[in-house]
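Teaching assistant's notes for section 4

Start the section by putting this record on the projector. Ask students to predict, before seeing the second block, whether UDP-glucose 4-epimerase will look compact or extended. Collect guesses on the board.
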Amino acid sequence: MAWLLTGGAGYIGSHIVQAFLAQGREVVVLDDLSSGFREFVPGSVTLHEGRVEDEAAVAAALDAQPVEGVVHLAGLKYAGESVNVPLDFYRANVEGTRVLLEQLAQRGIDRLVFSSSSATYGTIEGEIVDEDGAQRPESPYGESKLIGEWLIRDQARARPSLRHTSLRYFNVVGSGPATADGVSLVDHSPYNLFPLVFRALSADRRPKVFGDDYPTEDGSCIRDYVDVVDLAEAHVRAALLLEEGRELAPAYNVGRGEGVSVRGIVETILAVVEREDLGYDVVARRPGDPARVVGDATRIERDFGWKPGRDLEQMVRGAWTAWTAPGAAEREAAQDAARRAG
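Reveal the predicted structure now:
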């Protein structure tokens, strides 16, 4: 039986596909390709093209083959962008989750791993936040992910057979090895820090740091960065534990438990790619960006036996290698043209 990955053609989802395949598990993907790429899905994996809030598309993907469980990643992200178009985020992230839960119930599928976010916390109190910390999201994106967790919680109360957990990502960076088809899995996000810096470097421009007036040590945001390969392995462990019938906690932080400033990240990237001469510029804050978000990952280490294995320099090297791999620049140019046309 297969695991269905909604959003499995995206940057994170495609790495999770790779992690499942590495375990010899069958996967199938549902993705509308609005931010994912067809070539990120290996030829051996079935791709159903459609939106998760479309009942017919979800039904078709679930009915095409026996499904063991679902890893639900599909939706919109980016806190700052959600401030400008909040209804788009509620449609994709809240309605999409509702539709999926309804379709799972109709078929008796009772295993679900939900892609949540540390954005549900907002700016944390103190140095680090655990899963029981106050959730005060500061953007419609964070709110939509929190509502998604509530929907799953309430459905599990109404349908006790539903085994589930939500993985609250912190800042996901890096890239793993290319697929069996030779495709590098690159983060082409228009808003994430690594691709923003890499775009600047590729054009011989100074990268930007958004804000230097936060109440932090160097004035820039503090974030907990985790490598996408480590994150993908955490998803597979969650899925396998649910298969075993393990009772998992409602939510787990997935991070390194270490805060790094945006200035520190940019300086590390410049050093690793040997462009320290270029420097960087500080510009105004982006809306919806909390000052500090660092997660306590004790719970996931205890229950999953999972610990992130890649340090910051490895994350940068993996991401830069993928960014400069054959075919990546052409895909980036096509994405840029599509953004400009849209």
